[in-house]
Fold this sequence. Notes:
The complex is a heterodimer. Chain A is an alpha/beta fold. In chain A, 26% of the residues lie in helices and 28% in strands. The longest helix of chain A has 27 residues, at 341-367. By secondary structure, chain B is mainly α. Chain B has one domain (3-57). Helix content of chain B is 85%, strand content 0%. Chain B is built from two helices and no strands. Chain B has helices at 3-37, 43-57.
Amino acid sequence: MTSSSTTSTSPLPARTPVLIAGGGPVGLTVAALLAQQGIASTVIEADSSFCDGSRAICMSRRSLEILGWIGADKPMLDKGLSWVGGRSYFRDREVLHFEMPAEPTQRFGPMVNIQQYYAEEFAHDAAIATGLVDVRWSTRVSNVTPHGNGNTVEVTSANGSTHRIEADWVIACDGGRSTVRELLGLQLSGMQYDGRYVIVDIEQATSRPVERLAWFDPPSNPGSTILMHRQPDNVWRIDYQIRDDEDPAEAVKPENVLPRVQSHLDMIGETAPWKPLWISIYNAKCLTLPQYRHGRVLFAGDAAHLVPIFGVRGLNSGLDDAGNLAWKLAAVLRGEAADSLLDSYSIERVHAARENIRYGAKSTEFMAPPNYGFRLMREAALRLALENDSVRSLVNPRQTTAIEYVDSPLNIADFGAFDGGPHAGLPAPEASIQTTGGAQHLSELFGQHFVALYFGDIAPATKGSGGVRVYSVRDTVAIRDGDIHDTLGQMRERFAAAPGTLYVIRPDGYVLGRWRNGRDIDIAAIIDKALQQTTRTA
Amino acid sequence: MTHAELDTTYTALAEAIARTGETRSPLLLATLALSLLAEQPDAASALAQITQAERLSNT
């Protein structure tokens, strides 16, 4: 199921610039992203290899872009199953057919299903290929002592031996039960829902298209809610809600799970032989740390926040944490940025977690109604959705989207009037482009450097200043390095651009600022100011 | 009404029902329904909606 992982046998280092606690998908992606920026790290993972069970399976377009920055997008696409929409049924009738935004020229589909252990493997391979990442399996963090210039981290190997590592920075990516969080005495705050879902992966061949499928009160399991997702290797993910009076420990026993699965497969006409692969149980949690930076310890992924499963914001938001954090920490370690830049990581990603929790809570209120009011309203909505288009949107699963960094200290207010397009704090839109390298997508230019997009011919002196890549966006064929041919006019339209418009995009693909008349803007100075900024408090 | 606005009102009504409780919720819903019926353009459309709601509530 999982490929063998590289096991380093050399002695653990005495010091490391960055120690990453947790070799899951977020930790390995952070390591690979840092390595792209020339920063070495040591990854400490308690397990002996990639995760058991498929866990997070829906990777958003945004997550694929981030994985693209480390070169892990191709194996994800080769292995994963791309999908665009889904169907919801009330009993045996369809109440919703939804499709997420997609276009023929897109780089990635809106969502790709793939088992988490593949994502871990591809991120791991990308990290190892850089030669800058040291992954230590079967090793756990047993103590963290922050001090003025870093942290003394005690790690314990499988044989019980302990070792001390001086780490300038620690990134805790060690999951929902984070050891680092516990060692620092920090607690997640928020709430959780009582409604429990059993999660089952089974192996079964099918000829069905890849879609998200949901049934409310299906004849196969009256009163329950069932979700189905297709995964590679002939695997179905099946989630179903158990009754409030069911004992969770009993509910996950195969003798209680398999008959319900069989009944549902019978109902939908999936008759091929099947076998269970993995069974787990879940309840929706809305929890976050109030801050993700604690001195020189940073939190990311489930160690920082737990969001409801509905809407697939868990791993996807963890990868966005990685994309936000890596370039900032690299800039600090290279001495280009003040360490206060990392406060913006916390501000932006705590805000994103709260937004994800807000959307996730909405989804949960529909998928696992927490009280009589939500139960009754769902009964009404499902019935009415059979006949009235106007209420069908209530059944829509509200899948993950990139979160706007509202009120980020990095945001620069618009200079000049824009009629549309992304202002500071929004992710840059995707576009089909052509450079001297051939046909590309704009998102491929992000991930490592600041990118300036100037619509027109920019003064050659401005090109390449500082750590920024300056591009001239033209409506003619790209003939020089630094030219972008806006092949289909998508950039001009999506950026609401006119000749002279300048956008400065952060390495994580978010807009830093934009200028209607950008010809004489000192781009390097703008970026330097962003990197040196001290945190403004609300 | 936009989808987001419908979503907001859906949640608000669910929460109002939860606060009011199972016993008194029929009164809450009847009060709300009557208020909405009074805003209908004519009796025909109001009666059609009552007929639809009654039919769906028996499924």
